[in-house]
Amino acid sequence: MKTILKVSIAIVLIGMIVFVVSILFEPKYESIPVGPDALSSNDIEVLKKFGFISDSEKVVLFYSTKRIDKSGCLITNKRVTSYDPGQRFENAESVRLDSILDVKLLPSLSIAKYSRINVTRKDSTTFTIVVGAASYSDQKFFNMLNKEWKQSAK
Q1: Are 61 and 55 spatial neighbours (Cβ–Cβ below 8 Å)?
Q2: pLDDT tens for each residue of 90-146
Q3: How many other CB atoms sit within 10 Å of the CB of residue 2?
Q4: Among residues 34, 54, 141, 152, which one has the least CA distance to residue 96?
Q5: What's the farthest any 2 CA atoms get from each other in the chain?
Q6: In whole angstroms, how large is the CA radius of gyration of the chain?
Q7: Which percentage of the chain shows pLDDT scores above 70?
Q8: Is the confidence at residue 89, as pLDDT, over 60?
Q9: pLDDT for res 25
Q10: Strands of 59-63's sheet in order across
């Protein structure tokens, strides 16, 4: 009986250690938008696998608070895309930069919260990108989206 108890405790402790280590070493981008150089070749392959970028696109900016295969938003030289764990990836929101009519930042009232960036397409449909306000991530993403959008209009 004591041996079974000891083995059970050992298994629980090993499980807890594995869980803590997996959390500590999970790839994260910590609420800070990162440029293309911060993305590994595996990250780029994940984005291609889900259809968020094509071979001809270059990632300009990526943002996520979770693992890249779970949620994020990105700007490429051709489009902006937002996806999250509550959506199926094939339902992620995306729009070509040259199809954007307007972009508006709805800032958070607290740096500990999330801001929203509303993107209006030329066909009047809209979608919202959610970006953390910490470290001015929302403003950085908004500014880069505006820059890329305006360059695409030239």
Answers
A1: no
A2: 568 889 999 999 999 988 877 668 888 999 999 999 988 888 777 677 888 899 999
A3: 6
A4: 152
A5: 77
A6: 19
A7: 73
A8: no
A9: 43
A10: 59-63, 72-76, 79-83, 93-96
Q: What amino acid occupies position 24?
A: L
What's the rounded Cα separation, in Å, for the pair 55 and 44?
10
Model pTM score:
0.71
- Ordered structural domains, the chain, with CATH: 29-152 (2.30.29.30)
User: Of 4-13, 41-50, 120-129, which range is least confident?
Assistant: 4-13
Burial of residue 107 (number of CB atoms within 10 Å: 0-12, 13-18, 19+): middle
By CB atoms closer than 10 A (0-12, 13-18, 19+), residue 50 is: middle
